[in-house]
Fold this protein.
Amino acid sequence: MIHKFTFVEKILLSNDVIPHPMVDALTNILAGKALQVSVKLGLLQTLEGDSLTLEQLASKIKASPEGTEVLLDNLEALGYVKNTNGGFSLTKRGEKFFSRKSDSSMLNTILFSDYVFEALNNFEKNVQQGRPKDINLDIFTPEQWEIFNNTMVEVSRSNAKEIAGLLPKKTSHKRLIDIGGSHGLYSIEYLKKVSGMTATVFDLKPVEEFAKKFIKDAGFSKDVSFQVGDFFKDNLGSDYDVAFAFNIIHGLTPTQNESLFKKVHTSLNPEGMFVILDQIKEASGKSQLAKLVSSAQGLMLFNQAGGRTYTFEHVKNLMQDVGFKEISMKRLRAPGNALIIGYK
């Protein structure tokens, strides 16, 4: 992400002398594509912990020196790669986000963004007809499911500890259901804070094998179980004290969210807590970046699943309509992201 501007550039940008639309619609898109291709070819992964000449790097990734140089120019401008006397290596930022050993790796997220780019070919038509023909989860290939699952882990690692620290903890709460919880990382981090609690991750069949392995590797197989289910079709069960719906509502229509909220309300014990994590419009505050993150996420989910991002008031009203009370919002560090908490 470009964040360093000269004093003159700041003045020109603030006074609209620099043509913002060209940067928004062309420059940023091309730079994003360069990043996606670099990950797909293994360019960034090849530079991990190493310094290579252009010719060495091109040979290793089986690409032309000319094409490799074009990618490196963009990666250097983005701040992920540096050139020291003809030797190319990852910057500190590049190592953080593209080293396979890093807990902050975004390699799968970039691969998933390439799929998002391809899906945008249908965006104009979807805008005209009001929703996509197919829902992404219904048409994912096994390879896309693997990338999607790993992407969800990468995204969750960026805020799971923060969220676990922000959520209320009650010793009386013993059972948690993590709806669409995929890998179960959010449940795991929360259980570290609340002794004696168990969790059930409720998600689709293609997630099961991945989730069970992730939960086992984290050492939480005794405390976190996985239940195959589709919250559109199946009951969630009952006698839960806490329910998570993290990064779920943005993929649903208002009618679908109302139906889900009713099921959650039924599944919870009296005074049970319902927690939503999502991109919420009011979470932007005065930040243009946060507003762009929220609105762009809404665009992606509309194009791929018929969803969108919602206002806090909209979500609050839906929750109140099905019986939740004491509803509040907590902004997260991630731009445009927030928790919404309500009680039965």
Summary: Residues 56 and 194 are 51 Å apart (CA to CA). The first helix runs from residue 7 to 14. The beta strands are 81-84, 87-90, 175-179, 198-203, 224-228, 240-246, 268-279, 325-331, 337-343.
